[in-house]
Design brief:
Arc Repressor Mutant, subunit A; about 325 residues; two-stranded parallel ribbon; TIM Barrel; alpha/beta; single chain; 12 strands; eight-stranded mixed β-sheet
Amino acid sequence: MSYLFGPVPSRRLGRSLGVDLIPRKSCPYDCVYCEVGPTTRPTLRRFPYQAEAILEELRHYLKEGGSEPDFITLAGSGEPTLNLDLGRIIRAIKSLTAIPVAVLTNGALLHLPEVRRELAEADVVLPSLDTAREETFQRINRPVAGFTLDLLLQGFAACRREYPGQIWLEILLLKGLNDSPEELAALSRVLQDLAPDKVQLNTSVRPGVEDWARALTREELKAAAARLGPGVEVIAAFNGSTPPSPAGSDTALVEMLARRPMTALDLSRALGAPLAQVKAQLKRLCDSGRLSFSLYGDREFYRPKLKEAGRTGQP
């Protein structure tokens, strides 16, 4: 089993080498837009998970001279701060390489002082906040019972006070759910208090858990950004280049798609492989029953059949 994925093109981090810190799908949330799929292990309780195996794979990657990314990104098939070895893993990475470390998190555990201490050595923390209203928070993010927006915001505020690195906050807007003038005004007030280094506006660009979680257009996102205040950016498509490399093995490709659905063009860019070659590999994997595809907007997104997806990332 592989704990690394990529480097893949990221709209926020350039070329990102992902490190999967958590088994699928352990998370305090069950977000309606999540591209990984429904949460099967809802929890706020932290647990150890494969630290030695993760670090050994990363050491091997760096030793073998793998393509150097812009960031090593701690993410996962769930919420990465659930991993009790988070701090140890960050320290080990910093001792191995000068490549900056980023942590993608939904922020649900930032109210815990130990989590904030463990994050202190990361270069960038990228939390998410989709609303400043409790009712909308419960509807979109669907947290574990008893977890509130107020506790989330307390954690964000404490992280802002204590964390020495960059905080890039992502807001994901969905049509008819959190894009109204009232929703945006409440978010704008919270952003003034939290003062993140960047605010990055996103929408649902891949198939998620619920079909009714619909994306905004780029024009609607730009209008929302203007309402949220100066400096808010709509996340643009990745424009960098990926060094050519042979297409990945079937297993590696299936594992990559288990972490997020991708189009053939996404995969071609991520692998640095010719589009025609990737399309042929996808067709063969679909014909054999390992992959399926679905239309989202006017694009075909590929993901493993449920049996394959459920196997990937389990302890």
